[in-house]
């Protein structure tokens, strides 16, 4: 089963981000479906039944955190844009603690923790659209999208389809 750990977002924030997504309606950019917006904690990849059972039996509860959702950025950088994201605050320690628990189950440790919400992926960008994209990113670089209370982590199943990934919550640690 292909899966990952995520922090699910409330509907108000998702609705707020829908308005932002409209600004990235450029050829070559695939924005994330509203129902699929989340903060990625850790991508686990294909997990067999034994490993899945170990994850499900783990204590992945987290302490409550109030995170600010603000600023638009890109991976890997602004000259070569592949991912458009929205930043989050105060989650590095939470992600590090979960990563430590998963390391004990045999998962590779992350090199760094960059908590974010993926807004879209850039498949290609035409030259005349590149400047437009950079302007939209610059315009939203410091925009505050609000605060959210985070008190749970979810194990998500990801099924890839022609229309895009379909996510299903397997377990939620609250």
Automatic annotation (TrEMBL):
Reaction catalysis annotation: a 3'-end 2',3'-cyclophospho-ribonucleotide-RNA + H2O = a 3'-end 2'-phospho-ribonucleotide-RNA + H(+)
Claim: Ligase is one of the keywords in the record: yes
Keywords annotated in UniProt: Hydrolase, Ligase
A molecular-function term among this protein's GO annotations: RNA 2',3'-cyclic 3'-phosphodiesterase activity
UniProt keyword Ligase, yes or no: yes
Motif (HXTX 1): 38-41
EC numbers: 3.1.4.58
Residue stretches making up the Phosphoesterase HXTX domain: 7-85, 90-167
InterPro entries attached to this UniProt entry: Cyclic_Pdiesterase, Phosphoesterase_HXTX, RNA_CPDase
Chain location of the short sequence motif HXTX 2 per the record: 116-119
Cross-referenced Gene3D superfamilies: Cyclic phosphodiesterase
Organism domain of life: Archaea
Family statement: Belongs to the 2H phosphoesterase superfamily. ThpR family.
Described purpose of this protein according to its UniProt entry: Hydrolyzes RNA 2',3'-cyclic phosphodiester to an RNA 2'-phosphomonoester.
The protein's name: RNA 2',3'-cyclic phosphodiesterase
